[in-house]
Amino acid sequence: MEKKQLRELVESKKDQLLELCQQLIRIPSVNPPGEMEAVTAFICDYLKAHGIACEILRPTPQTPNIVARMGRLGGRRLLLNGHSDVVPVGNLEKWDFDPFCGEIRDGKILGRGTSDMKCGLAGLLFVMGLLAEEKADLGGELLLTVVPDEEVSGAWGTKWLVESGAVTGDACLIAEPTGYFNCEIGQKGSCWIQLSVSGTPAHGSLSPFVGDNAIVKLMRILNRIEQIREIVPRYDDEVARVMEESRAMAKRLLTAPGAQHVLNHCSVNIGKISGGTKVNMVPDSAYAEVDVRIPLGVTSEMVEEKLLLIIKEAGVDGVEYSFGWKSEPNCTDQKAEIVEAVAQNVQEVWGEPLNRTYQWASSDARFFRYAGIPTLQYGPANLEGVHAYNETVDVQDVINAAKVYIGAITDYLG
Questions:
Q1: How much is the pTM?
Q2: Is 134 one of the catalytic residues?
Q3: 397 in active site
Q4: Cβ(221)–Cβ(273) under 8 Å?
């Protein structure tokens, strides 16, 4: 069956695709707490009903990873990836609808996870089901991984699958939310800095003459911590071109003035502070956590060097630091074959060119890229609802994403 016919098949069966989206949304799979058994069983039942072999791998009892395979062994292997967990809904009073209703209104699907990323995941499942039903003779292997913990950093999901050798491939397509006009080919890294400062306790009435105030010492460091943003990235001309396109896209999507600068600078957020015992005591300890996101062209080593310089310039003793989380920025060549395949199909389906940009946050894509697998993210989304109240996705975006997926799969595998 030709690609055009496969797209027509998606169109003719779009109601089944939308119903699959609704069924996934109606299964609460909030993480934390991460109760994933119901959604995992549903996905496995769907795959098996379409004759697709799948298995569940559990690095821990609470983290079921689905691995499904179809196609021809011995050729190239295309990885498809998605996560089945969603972030918490927050204050229910701030939702205009039941976050797990899955209803369709005014051309939109409603509910938590519609954009991030159950409708993108549904698109992957749906096109695999269609290819299986049509007994498509793929020129290689299609391998789908559905992980349970992307929203909590993915230690026992994609990270474990890749690092354990359970999955590998020649390229990877992830259905994370990007919007129809954009794909993500790179992202920032992270350094979560933990700072501990010790002092000497005393009666508060004698400060600052007696005792050594740990909070004051910590503030000397935190008052300088923004200097991390001054680190100058180093990258080649190709990355520079994509970076400027990404900044332009961020300016379009983010309404805050100057927000596009997060892409080519470190971002620094003092997210947590604690210290002291009671108000009339000089505190002998203080603690802070700082979230630093690292752009391409900067490394965690460069951030650590800057941190040490800041501590030295602050003239503070009794300081200890560690990294609660550390990951490096990563990217895929904008002309990688899988990127070109998705771009070609976006042009054919939407009649628009695909923007290829870097992401200001991070996702499981980094684990595939660290393993040398060219990886991009492309999925249906209304980005303003991701991790927010009243999350939705446009019906047409979901249908067309499935058409893009089925076309890119057949183009890449033959």
A1: 0.93
A2: no
A3: no
A4: no
